[in-house]
Design goal:
The chain is built from six helices and no strands. By secondary structure, it is mainly alpha-helical. It has one domain. Helix 3 packs across helix 4. The mean pLDDT is 90.
């Protein structure tokens, strides 16, 4: 049997493609809606992931004021900075913020960086709104497919 995360990412790819083609909007990257749909039952994790994405976007945008960063370099830098903030958050900050470490884990390793890329291209409000709609849509399809088996 195919893993739930694989199905979720596949459905997320379809929704990302549809949003991109019909509305010219990208919900934070092609694989992001599928991963976010798996985490919707833990809204704190979704908020932490978006918080790391915003932080990543702001840091790279600030850095771009002093250094020429564009194209592929900017994309790689967003993913790398997002990954590093994720690591920093999970290793150090989480110890001081909560007594239950798993509660504040970021969704995915590179997901915040992928979201930050689209914050930079589309703006944070449009990207976040599109991401929420796509992730909820993916989650609804998963509920239709798996019903009561979808106990995450």
């Amino acid at each position: 049997m195919v893993d739930l995360s694989t199905i979720s990412v596949g459905i997320g790819l379809v929704f990302s493609f549809v949003f991109s083609e019909l509305f010219s909007l990208v919900p934070g990257g092609m694989v992001v809606p599928g991963y976010m749909a798996l985490g919707l039952h833990e809204p704190i994790r979704v908020l932490v992931t978006l918080g790391v994405a915003v932080t990543t976007w702001l840091v790279v945008a600030s850095l771009a004021q002093h250094v020429i960063i564009y194209g592929r370099r900017r994309t790689v830098l967003m993913i790398l900075v997002g990954f590093l903030f994720n690591l920093l958050f999970e290793r150090y900050l989480m110890i001081y913020l909560t007594s239950q470490p798993m509660e504040l884990v970021v969704i995915g390793q590179i997901i915040p960086g992928l979201i930050a890329i689209w914050f930079d291209k589309q703006g944070p409000i449009v990207t976040t709104a599109t991401l929420i709609i796509a992730a909820v849509s993916v989650r609804l399809v998963l509920i239709l497919l798996y019903g009561s088996e979808l106990m995450l």
